[in-house]
UniProtKB/TrEMBL annotation:
Protein name: Protein translocase subunit SecD
Domain of life of the native organism: Bacteria
Annotated GO CC locations: plasma membrane
HAMAP family (alphabetical): SecD_B
Subcellular location: Cell membrane
InterPro entries reported for this sequence: SecD, SecD-TM, SecD/SecF_arch_bac, SecD/SecF_CS, SecD_1st, SecD_SecF_C, SecD_SecF_C_bact, SecDF_P1_head
Membrane topology: Multi-pass membrane protein
Keywords: Cell membrane, Membrane, Protein transport, Translocation, Transmembrane, Transmembrane helix, Transport
Organism whose genome encodes this protein: Aidingimonas halophila
Amino acid sequence: MLNRYPLWKYLLILIVIVVGLIYALPNLFPEDPAIQISSAQSDSGLDEGQLDEIENALRDDGIDITAIESDGGSVLIRLASAGDQLNARDIASEILNDDYVVAVNQAESTPDWLASLGAAPMNLGLDLRGGVHFLLEVDMDEALTQRLEVHGSAMRELLRDERIRYRDTEIEDRRISLVFADEGDRDQARQLIRQEFDEFDYSTEDEGRAARLVMTLTDESVDEIQDYAIEQNLTTLRNRVNELGVAEPLVQRQGPNRIVVELPGVQDTAAAKRIVGATAELEFRLEASPDASDSDTETFEFRNEEGRSAELSRDVIITGDNVSNANRSFDENGRPQVNIDLDGTGGTLMNRATRSNIGSNMAVLFIEHNSEMRTVMEDGEEVEERVNTTERGIISLATIQSALGNSFRITGLESSTEAEELALLLRSGSLAAPIYFAQERTIGPSLGAENIERGIMSVQIGLLLVVLFMLVRYKVFGIIANLALGINLALLVAAMSILGATLTLPGIAGIVLTLGMAVDANVLIFERIREELRNGMSAQQAIHAGYERAVSSIVDANLTTLLVAVILFSIGTGPVKGFAVTLSLGILTSMFTALLVSRAMVNLSHGGKPLKKLWI
């Protein structure tokens, strides 16, 4: 019989629609603006007195509170307006001391029964949800210096193993220079080093009786080091952002030495900047022996003990690059510490160094690169100048009791927060070169709400115009097309929610385009039915022929568009990817609703009935 589906096909379509509606529903329950208060030192939460004081202060300032929720050591205060978030955070921070962290947050409002099914609303992009945007600049000169310091340390160890005496090591620009007592030692060292390090151009200089060996990085080596610095920093920043738990962040390269980081939903710029921009590195060094020469030692202050210093060997045992895992914990006295696991290479180097130095002291050197803008006078005018500084300090100096292996701990940290952040930085990997903030800006939640409102309005206007056109043009069949269009929109939203896709303003444009394309498929089908009716076919035959003969045109048109969307996703970045994802999912859902859902509704309303006239 014409225009009838078997029962299993109706049931399959019904199941898809019901599942789609369920997983699209959470988007009707948007996240509530909130502030979250948690302890920075332990798992203890706020007492009732502090919480009452904060609540009263917020209400006195005219801030509406919708709910207060406590979960272990954390308190979540839901607010009525997103515009009150930053003000509420500042008020709570003034009342509480440094033992508590107050952060802007977005609290889910999905009903429990939907959450139990794994349903959750779509992630919103930076332009809709608000967040922070950072433009970071990689210090390429420091990347070269760091690589040269590593090479210099390896060269010194190589010379000591071969008992070749040298006087001094200098690193400047792209060069490493070693001073020897005579030309014989220099030539022997040159031959030995050249076998291990082929990325240098070698030259010699005479300085009276002494002889100098100068090693300069080749242009190809410089390019390789700088490319590695960018790629390694990208990987490290992505790991750090993942540790922050930000949904759909953007971390991408921009130009030869810059990186863009966008964190949707993050309003606490200071906290995000502290984690993302942290350039902390760790070096493990032995304390210098009393008879060590000045050229082999460096003196560093302790970070947490003013006036105390120690002389350390220039040679580095391992760095943070050798850390495979790190977690914060507390020692037997309740003081914070970081438990560290090393990779195979790091464990071997640590064991070799500590096994032969039992009874000596080993230091953990903390290195931090900072940048600040200062106003200086230039040609009688005030100009902003970026000043980069590097701070090095000892955080731990302990006696080696026994040979260490792949696991050990770092103590001497000031607070639990410092230990947690240090563990996070070590887990995510160290930076290949320092990064500095060239630009930062915060997109407030109120601006995001305005974008959402305008985006929804654009979808509503587009949907209304399409609905009116279909009703006027195709009458009863226009009603069927509009119902299928609504189902298509629900399925698209459900698919994006299930896949965890991020909705952005370009994504909303993709939704509007999808609605138009979905109608285009129905127009092809309905015009084909009209044509068959004009050719003298019966109503049932015309419906059957209209759907069957329009399929190839619909599939061809949608497949070519889908191919373009895939290409956009593969080569595009940021907003372009958001548009491509929405468009791709919309094409799939529109084909399903146009070819199956609308056909099922036509079958149920017109199939198997004697029809003298079609209202189309």
